[in-house]
Design brief:
The protein is mostly helical and about 450 residues long. The protein contains 19 helices and no strands. Helix 9 runs parallel beside helix 18.
Length: about 450
């Protein structure tokens, strides 16, 4: 079944992408999440599946005139990401091993280019919802497979990882999608959609817990806190949040709780793993101070690890500090601004009183803010700049900002008169009513 799905999406999707590049983008992102060769390793042989769909996506994008480049309030977000890649290219020219640096740039470019393509082809809230559900269901299915292995007695997530990522790396992407799952579940009108979203949330939460990743657990707590702060305070929402908290507490056994609280242990009680992270963070700070502008070069912290007294090839176990050490303060600032500008510009949109042409914009803003807040905290514990999901969740938020601020989308109703507060309230309450068909 996995082989049939992979071939159908690769070659059938390539044809469709020539006429509808957005479909090609969805398939490309889907492959980045589920990694067919890893998910169905017994049936799907290694291949260039993502490359095939990417080429068709780019050809279709070109045939349609490269989309619409008017990004409105999302412009700074796009510029920060493109400038981040550009600064990495400048840093690579000064790196000790340029070929290693350019391989890293190529990997990041495979994320940046689809992001830009997505920004030019997103022209409706329907596409934003399709992208959000695709990201959630992809991660939900991966979490389902990992849960199934765990319940059968093999903790694949902790012992093996998935798709070349260890447990710490993979749970970061689950953390990033938990905000997505929660607010998609709240905003869905059909009961089966609510069940699907909250089911994915339960699977990802359980995977985070049995991964025993302290960074993942902390990020999950941050997602919960931010979601609590920005969720409209209604009885139904309170009940949902209490139910989710109760399930999470029930799933977390004594070993998980003990592992999490060891994060805050003092010098005498801190374990070797936690202490080594603190030592590496201090080394990164020294490296930034020594090379504040251009850094060591893309993906060059492992190259210089032995010089710092670490094992050769050692990662810094912090996305932010390793990026600062490798690309200097300009590179770190650009990547941080990419995420922070998105959060800051979506924050007012997340508030109930902010006038929007469609209440779905409130939900999109909330899900993106909660997801990125959890990611930014959890990313302090792992070095993985090529993790795709956070970039594409920013794409959802940036796409919403584009639709809210660019007038050419009047033809899909986004330029209509702003609804009254009473109409918005009525819509919000109606989403929690049981559909008549049920």
């Amino acid at each position: 079944m996995g082989l049939v799905f992979t071939y159908l999406m690769t070659y059938g999707g390539s044809v469709v992408a020539l006429f509808n590049p957005f479909i090609g983008l969805l398939i490309y992102i889907c492959f980045a999440i589920i990694r067919p060769e890893a998910l169905w390793h017994w049936s799907v042989p290694p291949g260039n599946y993502s490359r095939v769909i990417a080429l068709s996506l780019l050809v279709g994008w070109a045939l349609r005139g490269f989309g619409d480049w008017r990004f409105g309030r999302a412009t700074p977000i796009v510029l920060c990401l493109v400038a981040f890649l550009g600064w990495a290219c400048i840093s690579a020219t000064r790196a000790l091993m340029p070929e290693r640096a350019w391989e890293w740039i190529e990997a990041i470019g495979k994320i940046v280019l689809p992001f830009v393509v997505g920004m030019t082809v997103i022209d409706s809230t329907l596409k934003l919802k399709q992208l959000a559900w695709l990201i959630l269901l992809g991660h939900g299915y991966v979490a389902y497979e990992l849960n199934r292995a765990y319940l059968n007695g093999f903790n694949r997530l902790q012992e093996v990882g998935f798709g070349g990522m260890d447990n710490n790396c993979l749970v970061i992407t689950f953390v990033t999608c938990c905000g997505l799952a929660f607010f998609l579940g709240l905003s869905a009108r059909a009961l089966w959609q609510k069940a699907l979203a909250f089911g994915c949330l339960a699977l990802m939460t359980h995977a985070i817990l049995f991964s025993f990743s302290r960074g993942g657990m902390l990020g999950l707590i941050v997602v919960g806190i931010v979601a609590f702060l920005i969720t409209p305070k209604r009885l139904t929402n309170w009940l949902v949040m209490l139910a989710i908290a109760a399930v999470a507490i029930r799933l977390a056994g004594p070993e998980v709780v003990g592992r999490f609280f060891s994060t805050f242990a003092d010098d005498q009680q801190r374990d070797v793993s936690a202490q080594s992270r603190l030592d590496m963070w201090k080394i990164c700070a020294d490296a930034i101070a020594s090379n504040p502008v251009f850094g060591l070069g893309p993906y060059h912290f492992p190259v210089h690890a032995a010089h710092f007294g670490l094992t050769e090839g050692k990662e810094a176990h912090s996305l932010w500090l390793q990026i600062g050490a490798e690309l200097g303060l300009p590179g770190l600032s650009l990547l941080l601004l990419f995420y922070l500008v998105c959060i800051v510009r979506l924050w007012p949109v997340s508030r109930f009183g902010y006038p929007v042409p469609d209440p779905i914009f409130h939900d999109i803003a909330r899900m993106v803010i909660a997801s990125l807040a959890g990611f930014m905290v959890a990313a302090q514990f792992v070095s993985l700049p090529g993790l795709e999901s956070p970039y594409y969740i920013v794409l959802i938020g940036a796409g919403a900002l584009k639709l809210l601020s660019v007038p050419q989308y009047d033809h899909i109703g986004l330029g209509a008169a702003e609804p009254s507060d009473a109409a918005t309230e009525e819509f919000e309450e109606a989403r929690w009513q049981v559909p008549a068909a049920v």
